[in-house]
Write a structure and sequence with these properties.
This protein has 98 residues and is mostly beta strands. Helix content is 9%, strand content 34%. It has a domain of 66 residues: Folate-binding fold, CATH 3.30.2270.
Length: 98
C-alpha cells in the first residue's frame, strides 16, 4: 500500500505508523469522567468503507497526516496534514567538513 505524503510524495506504508481513528474525540486531559475515558480507550467501530484515520510519517518527515482509507479495498482517497502546515526541515550546512 502506498501513502502519498503531501511533503515527501508517494511512500510505502512501512514508512508510516498508524496513530488511530480520526473520528474519535479525546476527553479533556483533566477530565475525571471514567465513562468518557473508557469509551475513548476501549470502544471501537469497525466500519466497512471510507474511514478517517491518523497516520505519522515516522520514517520520513515525521508529519501527522489525516488519511481517508477504504477499509475494504485499502484505497486511499485523501491525505492532508493533520495540523495544516508543512513540516520544518533543518537547513543543511554546505561546505562543512565532517
Amino acid at each position: 500500500m502506498l501513502i502519498t505524503c503531501p511533503y515527501c510524495g508517494p511512500r510505502d506504508v512501512s514508512e508510516f505508523t498508524y496513530q488511530g481513528d480520526g473520528n474519535r474525540e479525546r476527553p479533556a486531559p483533566a477530565s475525571q469522567n471514567l465513562d468518557a475515558w473508557n469509551e475513548y480507550v476501549y470502544d471501537r467501530l469497525n466500519p466497512a468503507g471510507d474511514h478517517n484515520e491518523v497516520w505519522q510519517h515516522s520514517g520520513g518527515c515525521r508529519s501527522h497526516l489525516k488519511v481517508v482509507r477504504n477499509t475494504l479495498t485499502h484505497e486511499i482517497s485523501s491525505v492532508v496534514f493533520a495540523r495544516g502546515h508543512v513540516p520544518h526541515r533543518s537547513p543543511t550546512k554546505r561546505g562543512s567538513k565532517a
